[in-house]
Amino acid sequence: MKTIISILLDKLEVSYTPVYLQKLTEKCNQAQTLSDITLLLAYYKVESLAVQIGREELSEIPLPALVLASQKDENGKTHNDYSILEEVRENEVALINVKAEKEIIQIEDFEKSWTGYTLLLDKNENAAESNYLAHKKAEKKQSIFDSVKTIIQVLVGISFLFLIGKSFSETSTNNVKSIFEISFYVLHSVGFIISAILLSGEIFKENVIFKKACKALGKSSCADTNTTEKSKIESLKKWFTFSELGIYYFFGAFLFLVISKFQNDFLAFMLQSLFSVLGIFAVITSLYYQKFILKKWCSLCVSVMAVLFIESVLGGMYLFISQNDLAEITISPLLSPFAIAIFSFLLPVFVWNILKPILTKYNSYKNEMKNLHSFKYDFEVFKTLLYQSKRIDVSEVPTHFVEGNTASDENPVSLVVISRPTCPPCISAKKDLQKLRENFGSYFKMTTCHLTANQTSEDYKQISELLSKLPTSYSEVEKEHIISHHYAWINQQEISFTPAFILNGYLLPEKYTVSDLNYFMVHLANEMEEEIQINQEELVS
């Protein structure tokens, strides 16, 4: 599914893979704010700057640009929507919306919803997804795997239906009744799946499958309808919701038919038909609630009601064509099917009441972790914790191992790494640093300072080998002096653990790792640039 970011990358002709873009979007808080989008675009080497401008500046900004609009929906809720500003004319603007549709609207109408917040874009000549070819190859493999999996699932489904049909055709003397019986199996399965999706949206508020299914079935208010207290049966609202009732009925009915195959399946289908006919009251009740009480329509709920309605019609028809057999039924043979029905319908109730508190607790824990994640990766929070950390003077740090942006006139973010070659956490951090350089190498300068205890240690030998690989040639005496210099500087800063990271002169807080810097590097670079501009303006004045 296309997003405004993928449409923007297409517009900028930046190579990307949807799967990796989705992963990055999740990392960047679903790209909800301009700050999130700035970070996300930085992964693709697209520089961006968020500004707030007025109508008079629109014709002066580089295009395309991302604009933020604020609108109210039919329920009165305010939603922020992003569009791509493609062209600015004298009295109108050309926008590309989230559906990749081009819209030409009057500039006065545009101003009514436009917040003024605009993201200016500057595409790097090397703009592309990191490891794009590898990601593209993996995506093709996954696509082939998904296709094969879908084919297998379809074949299994067809085979299952074929076996059921064959079983009924062999055991039933009436082929018309067999068609009804198969229809009940299929409808119960469809009803259960839709009810399960509906219930997943009730338990897991941010369920992607629920949202996609709701949108796929047309414009509706599934989330609002499903979560409001009015969606519960008023007299029994402490016991179950409509979605839970759907699960109980469809699963129980399917199980009832399966078990009854080993008993008197004729009587079982008679009972099933009776249950289905009675289901028409649930259809009427649900439609009444949505129309007159909730005053909103839920497409998934209506779909469940459609399945129930079809079952009611089929059940009535089944009873009608079997009316001659009904006259011969006595009470005693019905006891066994009734017992099976009670068991079949109570089993899902029992199982769900065990699973529900577990899933609810898990969802609550997941939401708490998400909130903590958002709090942890809030730049202002990170900056506050960083500036509360230990201050370290890095003006005299040894500069034998320097990587990243070494241009002195660009004033990049400073990152000093204290490491030991044989330290396992240091080896792991080295991989994270490599990824950080791949994503934001132009934003920071990394200086590595190596810690070793004595000349006989393995660390000393490996550091000596690293010095031998540098462009500058060093004698053994010079190497010894350099390694001692590194050790003395680290010891002077009273750093006794590795790896340690010093960011812009502050020790990285314990709650953060080097991989977390992927979230903040763009913000840090922008902040440093702003500070430099302010200092220059103060010097001029």
From TrEMBL:
<feature type="transmembrane region" description="Helical">
    <location>
        <begin position="333"/>
        <end position="355"/>
    </location>
</feature>
<keyword id="KW-1133">Transmembrane helix</keyword>
<dbReference type="GO" id="GO:0016491">
    <property type="term" value="F:oxidoreductase activity"/>
</dbReference>
<dbReference type="GO" id="GO:0006508">
    <property type="term" value="P:proteolysis"/>
</dbReference>
<feature type="transmembrane region" description="Helical">
    <location>
        <begin position="184"/>
        <end position="204"/>
    </location>
</feature>
<feature type="transmembrane region" description="Helical">
    <location>
        <begin position="266"/>
        <end position="288"/>
    </location>
</feature>
<dbReference type="Pfam" id="PF07884">
    <property type="entry name" value="VKOR"/>
</dbReference>
<dbReference type="GO" id="GO:0008233">
    <property type="term" value="F:peptidase activity"/>
</dbReference>
<dbReference type="InterPro" id="IPR038354">
    <property type="entry name" value="VKOR_sf"/>
</dbReference>
<dbReference type="InterPro" id="IPR005074">
    <property type="entry name" value="Peptidase_C39"/>
</dbReference>
<keyword id="KW-0676">Redox-active center</keyword>
<comment type="similarity">
    <text>Belongs to the VKOR family.</text>
</comment>
<dbReference type="GO" id="GO:0048038">
    <property type="term" value="F:quinone binding"/>
</dbReference>
<dbReference type="InterPro" id="IPR012932">
    <property type="entry name" value="VKOR"/>
</dbReference>
<feature type="transmembrane region" description="Helical">
    <location>
        <begin position="239"/>
        <end position="260"/>
    </location>
</feature>
<keyword id="KW-0560">Oxidoreductase</keyword>
<keyword id="KW-0472">Membrane</keyword>
<dbReference type="GO" id="GO:0016020">
    <property type="term" value="C:membrane"/>
</dbReference>
<feature type="transmembrane region" description="Helical">
    <location>
        <begin position="144"/>
        <end position="164"/>
    </location>
</feature>
<feature type="transmembrane region" description="Helical">
    <location>
        <begin position="300"/>
        <end position="321"/>
    </location>
</feature>
<dbReference type="InterPro" id="IPR036249">
    <property type="entry name" value="Thioredoxin-like_sf"/>
</dbReference>
<keyword id="KW-0812">Transmembrane</keyword>
<feature type="domain" description="Peptidase C39">
    <location>
        <begin position="1"/>
        <end position="121"/>
    </location>
</feature>
<protein>
    <submittedName>
        <fullName>ABC-type bacteriocin/lantibiotic exporter with N-terminal double-glycine peptidase domain</fullName>
    </submittedName>
</protein>
<dbReference type="GO" id="GO:0005524">
    <property type="term" value="F:ATP binding"/>
</dbReference>
<keyword id="KW-0874">Quinone</keyword>
<dbReference type="Pfam" id="PF03412">
    <property type="entry name" value="Peptidase_C39"/>
</dbReference>
<keyword id="KW-1015">Disulfide bond</keyword>
